[in-house]
Amino acid sequence: MAAVSMPLGGYLTDRIGPKWVVATGMVLLTIGSVVLAQIHYDSSNLLVIGALMLRGFAMGFAMMPTMSAAMARVPRRYTSRASSITNTLQRVSSSVGIAILVTILAGQFTTAARQTSCTPPVAVVAAAARVLHQPQLTAQQYCGYLQQKIAASSAQQSSGSAQPSTGVAVLDAFNHQYSGNVFSDAFDRTFVVISVLSFIGVFPAFFLKRPDPQSQARSGAPVEIAVA
User: Fold this and answer.
1) I need a labelling partner for 29 at 20 to 30 A (CA). Which of 111, 119, 121, 173 fits?
2) Exposed / middle / buried, residue 55 (Cβ in 10 Å: 0-12, 13-18, 19+)
3) The whole model's pTM is what?
4) Cα→Cα distances 141→123, 130, 138, 152, 167, Å
5) Smallest Cα–Cα separation from 164: which of 175, 154, 174, 151?
6) Is 188 exposed, middle or buried (0-12, 13-18, 19+ CB in 10 A)?
7) What span, in angstroms and rounded, lies between the C-alpha atoms of 184 and 103?
8) Are 34 and 51 in contact (CB under 8 A)?
9) For residues 68 and 10, is the Cβ–Cβ distance under 8 A?
10) Phi, psi (5° rounding) for residue 124?
11) In whole angstroms, what is the distance from residue 128 CA to residue 184 CA?
12) Closest Cα partner for 177 from 41, 62, 43, 50?
């Protein structure tokens, strides 16, 4: 979808300037993030695919026009320097952003495990008591056991691997569903943060300016560089 939207974004940028194109891309990116924040354990795959396609289309509108608008206002003799600085900042900020979001995601597992509803049926508690060799196990104790296991899980694990198979179908089904709900809640809250950041990015887009061919041609004259 990004490959489809990039040429369209470039065409619209040449016609109306980068301001509205980038702002539209950031709005669509926000909408896609909000949709991803609504995904749960039993959500349809079509919802996930649709949200990712929308985000991909939005990225084509948001990224390249921003970079092009910034570089177009740099005098030609400074193009190589500006390109190097831009690429460096892009990679550094991308790494820092990923690290921050992973930290937020990992921090949400413990909170989501405590807040996700855990009401195992009698059959599940009985099966867990046999597997854990605790005849007096209660539903509350088993929920606490699950919360500790999930809280210690890595952010790279999936809901299916968060709880290993016990060989008891009714117990595995409950564990899989509960851990899936916890993981989906943790990801939902992380995408809420991404949605807020994407929406904030709408406002700087209105400060982007059209390329100034005359200023760009005067390579020795100082020009204003748009903030990406």
Assistant:
1) 111
2) buried
3) 0.76
4) 15, 14, 5, 17, 20
5) 175
6) middle
7) 16
8) no
9) yes
10) -70, -45
11) 24
12) 41
